[in-house]
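Cross-posting from the modeling subforum.

Setting up a comparison between two proteins and wanted a second pair of eyes on the formatting. Protein 1 (sequence, then structure tokens):
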Amino acid sequence: MKKITMIASALAMAASVAVPVAAQADVSVDPQPRNGICEVGEFCLYYLSNRGGSVSDFNTSIPGYGSSQPTCYEFRGPGAGQGLCVWHNAMSAWNRTSHAVRVHRTINYRGGYDLFAAGQYKNLVATSNLNECHLFL
């Protein structure tokens, strides 16, 4: 009987250790958090032209940036614009992904847009201070 109890205890301990490891693996699906640093694999919008001011970094398409706090995507990096909503405030971008990305004037990927090839950075033209979403192609 002691042997069965010891085996059951060992199995219960092993199961409790395995659960946190599995949960931790799920967290690593998004290795680049929105931290205000434009890292490889991210599309980044800047508050000012020529990649100036605060940055907002993304690793997926966003159908709408949101127009007001507290529910908008904001500029997180240091510099001018930090804490402001991205909506209608970005003037330049850097595409550090392997995909083309379009920045659109209207939510849900509609309206005029600026196209960024993989690795490209430039000032926004059609969507400068009129940007509402972006789409990874």
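Protein 2 (same layout):
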Amino acid sequence: MTGLPLSAYNWGDQDIQRDAQLRTSLAVSCMHKAGFAGFSGDNYQGTEPPDNATALPAGAWGYLGADIAGVQGFHPPKRSQVRTAPAGTDDSEAFVTARVDCDRQIAEQLKPPSPAGTELVNRLFSESLQATGRDSRVTEATRSWADCMARSGYRVADPTTPLQQYRGPGSPTAEELATARADADCTTRSNLAGVWFAVLTGYQKQQIDQNATALAAQQKAVKDQAERIARLLAGSGTS
């Protein structure tokens, strides 16, 4: 999804990670100044990010690969366990007040650009997804996928149905893994993912042409903010 045309007008994964790193560094510094020397990045973050968080199989765009389907089914990647709250955590009123004040200072220091640009990109992204879902090329590829699934013993018309059916708590069952392997095979045979991405890309390119001025301003604002955060991060000694 990050390779789609409209993705160029919002932050990438690296920008988001840098923003999180800077916010953690600023929070630790602020809390130390407030007298809480035991406060650390662990206090601020609390959890490890999931491994390969974007590797979510199935859906309208199909599978990332049969290997994932065979072991992961329709479940998302396993998340790392939440760490036990370190020794710098404090429930006192002074601690909570300091946290709130530090969060306020960080928000003021890292105030993002006007939300209008991001709202525009999000709206266009939503509209492009809706248009793609209605496109005859996508509906034909989806019918081909459904026919393939039926031949494999699975009567389902919507590629998102198995995802919704199986992505509950617990580990993947044998039934889920078998369905996932059939889904991965039929996605390849129907070229559903290829058609879906190609059509979606086409709609987004049209949107970019139609909103060129506003999107150019948004892209510059996003770039400027990312560069500012990178400078602040370098100055904080965190990388």
